[in-house]
Specification:
The structure is a single chain. By secondary structure, this protein is of the alpha/beta class. It has 9 helices and 8 strands. An 8-stranded mixed β-sheet has the order 1-2-3-4-5-6-7-8, covered by helices on one side. The longest helix has 12 residues. The radius of gyration is 29 Å and the shape is extended.
Length: about 325
């Protein structure tokens, strides 16, 4: 289903979890367990026993949630937070009833729902620490609509082309920012990748965007003193022959670059390279290998014509075009 806003997708997701339906929530399957402290009188002798016999124990209800063969089990791709909410809905449903759900939720995962807008409804999630909005259609994010408690913001596979609105009032405690597979390009966006906006950033994913200026990128990222994990593969600047060496030497506190650990030997190998910017050439070398072609006649299979033969000679020529 498509949802224009994160809030709409959020409420749809809660409905999908069925937090008010068996075996979660309150109902004939567990009502007396939660009414016991409210109702001093339980009616005629023996009536309480009859009601209890019609109910299920917490252990049985939890088993219905956890058993992968149960019709009430969540699909394997659901998050651990989803499973946690359903278990709370069995053991203490009052904790997530009504607006109480906003005080419990720490992780929100809305993936592939066609979301286009990060709206102010998210501010109700007072303790949200992790927000995953991958594979949607978000092009701009207003930071004023993000909870200040966020530590992880994942926006992979969207249409983000401008970081200005996100950096107006970014979450101060953010540790991971995922912007891979978007539409970012320099130099207009490089300036938003500094400590002025992200003082606590530890992990940054900018893979598969359109950044081209390696020296400018390094100049901005070098201010992120807490940065330890960086992903830049898939950008044009990653095609520069000295790309990895310059980053390793320019960012001495970096531990992982493009999912590859930076060891002492590699640091020693590239030592001093950052002081030689003239080695960065404004060009990239590509080697393209064609492994297999189908549907094209193979000239080697044709028999050689006899000498002085008057048969027509057929030649073929092909053109291959690459678009970058």
């Amino acid at each position: 289903p498509r949802h224009s806003s994160v809030s709409a997708a959020f409420w749809e997701h809660l409905w999908y979890l069925g937090l008010q339906d068996f075996p979660c929530g309150l109902g004939s399957w567990n009502k007396s367990r939660f009414d016991a402290h409210r109702s001093p009188s339980r009616g005629q002798p023996g009536q309480e026993e009859a009601v209890m016999l019609d109910e299920e124990s917490p252990e049985v209800l939890m088993e219905l949630l956890r058993d992968p063969h149960s019709p009430w089990a969540l699909p394997p791709d659901c998050s651990s937070q989803d499973q946690y909410l359903r278990e709370v809905a069995v053991l203490a449903p009052e904790l997530i009833s009504g607006s109480n759900i906003f005080k419990v939720l720490r992780t929100l995962r809305i993936v592939g729902k066609g979301v286009e807008e990060v709206d102010e409804g998210l501010l109700q999630l007072q303790k949200l620490e992790e927000l995953i909005l991958s594979a949607n259609q978000i092009s701009r994010i207003t930071s004023a609509n993000l909870p200040r408690t966020l530590k992880v913001l994942e926006l992979c596979c969207n249409a983000v082309a401008d970081l200005q609105d996100l950096c107006t009032q970014p979450p101060p405690e953010l540790q991971h920012l995922g912007l891979g597979y978007n539409k970012l390009c320099g130099p207009s966006q490089d300036k938003y990748l500094t400590v002025d906006f992200w003082p606590n950033l530890v992990s940054l994913d900018l893979s598969f965007n359109s950044f081209t200026d390696l020296l400018e990128m390094i100049a901005q990222l070098s201010s992120l003193q807490k940065l330890r994990i960086l992903v830049l593969q898939g950008n044009p600047l990653a095609l520069i022959p000295t790309y990895r060496g310059f980053l390793v030497d320019s960012l001495p506190k970096l531990s992982i670059l493009d999912d590859i650990h930076i060891g002492p030997d590699e640091r020693h190998q590239f030592q001093g390279l950052a002081k030689q910017p003239e080695l960065i050439r404004r060009e990239a070398h590509l080697v393209v290998r064609i492994g297999e072609i189908k549907g094209v006649p193979d000239p080697s299979t044709h028999q050689h014509l006899e000498v002085d033969s008057e048969a027509p000679v057929i030649t073929y020529s092909y053109c291959v075009t690459y678009e970058f």
